[in-house]
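JOB MANIFEST
job_type = single_chain_structure
chain_count = 1
residues = 67
[input]
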Amino acid sequence: MDSETVPEGIVHADLTNGICTAERCFAVIGSLLTYFDQSNLTQDFARSLAPELGKELAKDPLIAAAK
């Protein structure tokens, strides 16, 4: 799903750049295991993405206006 296909009222936050480059996605970043299984992030790695998620959400006008 990309930002053009997201239903109205839903905020799209793409955190792919925090996990992958154009060539590959990493199993370990820093000292954190990234994937729990084939398609789910580990809890620790997901938590490490919180600052980036906050930045992405702040780009949404409705969320920014609520601050």
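[summary]
The chain has one domain: 16-65.
The chain is about 30% helix and 5% strand.
exit_status = 0
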